[in-house]
Amino acid sequence: MTVVNRVQQLFQKYKLPILIILGLIVLALPFLVNASMVRLLTTVFIYSLTALGLMLIFGFTGMFCTGFAAFYGTGAYVTAILATRYGTNFFITLICSGIVAGVVGFIICVPSLRLSADFVGLLSTALLNIFLAIVRAWTDVTNGASGIVGIPHPVIFGHEFKSKEEYYYLMLVMAVIVYLLIRNVLNSKIGLCMKGIRDNEIGTIAVGVKSRQMKLLTFTLGSFVGGVAGSLYAYYISAITPDNFVFAISTTFVQMCVIGGLGTLSGAVVGTVFVTFLPEVFRSLAVYRLGVGGLVMVILMVIRPQGISGSKAFAADFSIADRIRQWRLKREQKKVAATELEV
Predict the structure, then answer these.
(1) Are 266 and 186 in contact (CB under 8 A)?
(2) Of the spans 12-26, 51-65, 68-82, which averages the highest pLDDT?
(3) Which of 13, 108, 246, 310 could serve as 306's disulfide partner, Cβ 3.0–4.6 Å?
(4) CA-to-CA distance for 79 and 97, rounded, in angstroms?
(5) Looking at the predicted structure, is the pLDDT value of residue 158 above 70?
(6) Is the pLDDT of residue 28 over 60?
(7) Which domain holds residue 251?
(8) Is residue 313 in some structural domain?
């Protein structure tokens, strides 16, 4: 039994008290750490939302999406335009950003239903390139490469969120709400259909599940969540440019899901924390974030293929621990067989 498995068993045994303690720690963190750490944790909450949206598409339905930053950027630009030019309400802006990103996801998913998972990834990457070309060229709306600045602070029930602590709690609440909503969806019949399509699409179709409609729903829902995350990101940094949504960002989101563990919501959160804090731990390697993340993914594929908190069902028998276990078993079998021959 690995260390990660022991930790998972302890967590399941003492789940409630651990969650209460972790909740209290998270609530108290803004008063225990410095300002830069608070900003980093706020970014973790926003990225967690993005990883949750991608996890729906990639981890629970099996559709590889390498251009998820397109939906994230769509939500951010919709928010920037509505907030700076029309002064719309925070909640209206948030919902509109998610809806527009969801519509884009719906449109891109329709032609991809006939394609395999690998080609869906290529199609989403093409969408990201189209998105970047549009926001860079459509200067009258997006201000081109200069981006949109001066995005106002969100105002909720008459209160304007300005300080880093207020943003911290706002993003925390939004992340928790979205996490719980997605968990409820996954625990419903819709969630079972998603997992069935991922594990055995032909078998799922055989029992009456409409695979194409379910994929379309999942892709749209995941894109909606990505748009909401992009909206919160735009509010948080108050200025956006096309460089905030390049392919490297999409790759980082994929790394978060894979490293955390595909097929689990906790994996999206754990992977986000890991990928976000890794450059801080090795600050000298921050420039090589993408390469370091890729190296970690390769190491995990060998040591723990299912990711940090992923299910064993995603691991097959490819990890080093499994190979060593198989080698020991074969050696014991050979010893037993040799002993029996001698007798």
Answers:
(1) no
(2) 68-82
(3) 310
(4) 6
(5) yes
(6) yes
(7) 247-343
(8) yes
- Please give the full DSSP string across 119-184, using - where no structure is assigned: HHHHHHHHHHHHHHHHHHH-HHHH-GGG-EE-PPPPEETTEE--SHHHHHHHHHHHHHHHHHHHHH
The three-point CA angle 267-273-279 to 5° equals: 135
Last residue of a domain, one of 245, 275, 309: 245
Q: Which has the closest alpha carbon to 238: 158, 139, 308, 167?
A: 167
Structural domains in the chain (count)? 2
| CA angle (173 as vertex; 170, 179 as ends), nearest 5 | 140
Q: Which of 245, 263, 297 is the last residue of a domain?
A: 245
Domain identity same for 240 and 306: no
Quote the pLDDT of residue 84: 92
Residues 81 and 228 in one domain: yes
Is residue 215 domain-shared with residue 269, that is, in the same domain? Answer: no
As a whole number of Å, the CA-based R_g of the chain is 22
User: Distance between CA atoms of 45 and 171, rounded to whole angstroms?
Assistant: 6
Segment 275-304 shows an average pLDDT of: 70
**Cβ 178 vs Cβ 228: under 8 Å:** yes
> Has residue 128 been placed in a domain?
yes
Distance (Å, rounded) from C-alpha 286 to C-alpha 119? 31
pTM: 0.84
Choose between 184 and 61: higher pLDDT: 184
